[in-house]
């Protein structure tokens, strides 16, 4: 989803507990300067609109790491689904 936003001219910061992991570094390198990664809190502050994409069992923790106050007043697209 993030790659699609980047390809359509938007800046994207993917938040993660491990923003330096290999898959995210490769993702960022493949998309150029409009793509970046960082901690969940930075991503929540960065975005005008937020795509919340996590496993259901990790949702509460992801919100805590993002800082719920950083989501206030923003469009949040929640793609959380039970996976099992």
The class by helix and strand makeup works out as: alpha/beta
CATH architecture: 3-Layer(aba) Sandwich
Point out poorly predicted stretches.
none
The percentage helix is: 25-40%
Biggest sheet record:
2 strands, parallel
Global morphology:
globular
Radius of gyration: 13 Å
Q: What's the CATH first level?
A: Alpha Beta
Overall domain count? 1
Q: End-to-end distance, in Å?
A: 22 Å
Side by side, the strands of the main sheet go 1-2
Element-level helix/strand string: HEHEHEHE
CATH topology: Rossmann fold
- Strand percentage, roughly? 15-25%
- What is the tally of beta strands? 4
Give the count of helical stretches. Answer: 4
Structure description:
With 84 residues, this protein is α/β, with parallel strands linked by helices. It has a single domain, classed as NAD(P)-binding Rossmann-like Domain (Rossmann fold), CATH 3.40.50.720. It is 37% helix and 19% strand. It is built from four helices and four strands. It has helices at 2-7, 22-31, 40-46, 59-66, and strands at residues 12-15, 35-38, 49-52, 75-78. The strands form two sheets. Strands 1-2 form a two-stranded parallel sheet. Strand 1 (12-15), helix 2 (22-31) and strand 2 form a beta-alpha-beta unit. The model has no long low-confidence stretch (mean pLDDT 93).
């Amino acid at each position: 989803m993030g790659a699609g936003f980047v390809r359509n001219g938007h800046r994207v910061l993917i938040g993660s507990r491990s923003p330096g992991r290999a898959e995210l570094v490769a993702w960022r390198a493949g998309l150029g300067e409009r793509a970046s990664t960082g901690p969940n809190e930075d991503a929540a502050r960065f975005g005008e609109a937020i795509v919340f994409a996590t496993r259901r069992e990790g949702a509460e923790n992801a919100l805590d790491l993002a800082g719920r106050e950083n989501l206030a007043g923003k469009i949040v697209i929640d793609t959380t689904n039970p996976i099992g």
